Amino acid sequence: MQPDTSESRAPGRAIVACRGLSKIYTDGAVEVRAVDGLDLDIAAGDFATLSGPSGSGKTTLQNMIGGLDRPTSGSVTVDGEDLSSLNTAHLAELRLHKIGFVFQAYNLIPVLSALENIEFVLQLLGVGAKERRARAASALADVGLAGMEGRRPSHLSGGQQQRVAVARALVARPAIVLADEPTANLDSKSADDLISLMAELNARSGTTFLIGTHDARVIARARRHIEMVDGKVTADTTGDLADVAQ
């Protein structure tokens, strides 16, 4: 695992580079190109959304960037690491050190408190108990949940659980956070609050976000929007995305 450097994550540098990326599934005699020869860079500091109709390939693309799925051909590089050169154990290490995940279903450990859910990641990284607790508490404060350290997921609202998930994704200081429909299970206010939180964290710390979403509110707040159809990028828009989100 290459060490993190401020140079490798300097604004504008490619945190993710996909080259000729393809993922092909076969169903009997039928071949499905979920991702088809895709070239794409995600720059350090991007706050980008990714959307497309069902079957467009966006989930498959995120899974390959996250090292959860291997491409049929082509390459994915994350923070200087070529994922195709890594075995299963090294991929797991890369995910732990360099990629934060925020899932639609929160995926918190129900028997652990909010603080312990965040600490768990740092424990896997070998961080000592005192530093682990301090960093987890700071991460919770960053997402507006100071004072809720001892609450288990069942005693948190959906919006609060997703904030814990964001804190957990960020606590290891990853190169990129991959979020999969993070607002899908939230009411309108909680969704708006979560979007604002992620945008604020991106602006304040420069954390790179790639958010898979159909939510027009999320797209409108992004600085870059990528659309996929049939495994290919069909649009890549930066700037004012209010019209894109319509």
Q: What would your notes on this structure say?
A:
One of its GO terms (molecular function) is ATP hydrolysis activity. InterPro entries: AAA+_ATPase (IPR003593), ABC_transporter-like_ATP-bd (IPR003439), ABC_transporter-like_CS (IPR017871), ABC_transpr_LolD-like (IPR015854), MacB-like_ATP-bd (IPR017911), P-loop_NTPase (IPR027417). The protein is an alpha/beta fold and 246 residues long. The chain has a domain at 46-63 and 97-238: P-loop containing nucleotide triphosphate hydrolases (Rossmann fold), CATH 3.40.50. Helices cover 33% and strands 28% of the residues. It is built from seven helices and ten strands. It has helices at 58-65, 88-98, 114-124, 129-142, 158-170, 188-205, 216-221; strands at 14-27, 30-43, 47-51, 73-78, 81-82, 99-102, 176-180, 208-212, 224-229, 232-238. The strands form two sheets. It has a six-stranded mixed beta sheet. A four-stranded antiparallel beta sheet has the order 2-1-4-5, covered by helices on one side. β9 (224-229) and β10 form a beta hairpin. α3 crosses α4 and α5 (158-170) runs parallel beside α6. The longest helix is centred in the C-terminal third of the chain and has 18 residues, at 188-205. The N and C termini lie far apart (42 Å). The model is unreliable at 1-5 (pLDDT under 50).
